[in-house]
């Protein structure tokens, strides 16, 4: 059994506050999204996994199924609006939507071309917008639901590079506040978790041998782990957070500086 499987198994008996609910998690095949999918499954949710890599998606489905949790995988390209809406349609009736898929490339403005700009906005901002528009009205009609989007500390902590990434994540924060007002009276709660640096496959690949720099930007003295963000998402998805709506929850270890440019 893998280390991640051990983590799932250890949490199964801790309670199932999400039993009977269905969650759609975008970007579920790696990083924070994978940890979120595992944690929601531990807590009893049926999980609809989204990603681009079918082999990785099916592997995660089997991993969750071996522990008794129902899961299925849907491949979709979130840079394509029609494919994003197809994902919502195939996911069906969901009680929890976690917008975890993200795109980040940290470059100066003059070196960020139009295609990179469009990709950031499509995945980080437009896809959550389309999915909320497609799925939240049905949640509202049923009188309950939770939407959690993964933001970023880059939305509030400027750096010499990465303006388009920060802007796309700031857009999600604004949308969260509007959505909370639009849907809050119906029983649907909409919040954003805004992590600081988290050690994932993506950040490790981006920083390479310099990945230790991620441990130097907060009072905690280390970068976050995907599982730590997943715990917050699970809390926001469940009944214990029933009075939290329209919030931007910072999970940055007490950020004290920005990444060097």
TrEMBL record:
Secretion signal span: none
Keywords: Oxidoreductase
Cited CDD domains: SDR_c (cd05233)
Keyword Ribosomal protein among record annotations: no
Single GO MF annotation: oxidoreductase activity
Xref: InterPro entries: NAD(P)-bd_dom_sf (IPR036291), SDR_fam (IPR002347)
Keyword Oxidoreductase: yes
Top-rank lineage group of the source organism: Bacteria
Family of the protein in this entry: Belongs to the short-chain dehydrogenases/reductases (SDR) family.
Protein name: NAD(P)-dependent dehydrogenase (Short-subunit alcohol dehydrogenase family)
Originating species: Streptomyces iranensis
């Amino acid at each position: 059994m893998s280390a991640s499987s051990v983590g799932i198994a250890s949490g199964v008996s801790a309670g199932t506050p999400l039993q009977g609910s269905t969650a759609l998690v975008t970007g579920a095949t790696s990083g924070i999204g994978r940890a979120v999918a595992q944690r929601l499954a531990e807590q009893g949710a049926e999980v609809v996994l989204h990603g681009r890599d079918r082999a990785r998606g099916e592997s995660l489905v089997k991993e969750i199924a071996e522990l008794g949790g129902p899961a299925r995988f849907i491949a979709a390209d979130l840079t394509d609006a029609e494919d994003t809406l197809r994902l919502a349609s195939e996911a069906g009736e969901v009680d929890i939507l976690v917008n975890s898929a993200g795109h980040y490339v940290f470059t100066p403005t003059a070196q960020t071309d139009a295609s990179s700009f469009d990709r950031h906005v499509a995945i980080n901002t437009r896809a959550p917008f389309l999915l909320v528009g497609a799925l939240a009205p049905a949640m509202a009609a049923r009188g309950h639901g939770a939407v959690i989007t993964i933001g970023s500390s880059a939305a509030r902590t400027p750096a010499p590079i990465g303006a388009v990434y920060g802007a796309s994540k700031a857009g999600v924060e604004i949308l969260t506040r509007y959505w909370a007002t639009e849907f809050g009276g119906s029983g649907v709660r909409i919040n954003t978790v805004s992590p600081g640096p988290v050690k994932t496959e993506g950040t490790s690949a981006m920083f390479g041998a310099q990945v230790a720099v991620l441990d130097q930007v907060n009072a905690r003295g280390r970068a976050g782990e995907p599982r730590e963000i997943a715990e917050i998402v699970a809390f926001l998805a469940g009944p214990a957070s029933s009075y939290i709506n329209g919030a931007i929850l910072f999970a940055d270890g007490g950020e004290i500086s920005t990444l060097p440019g």
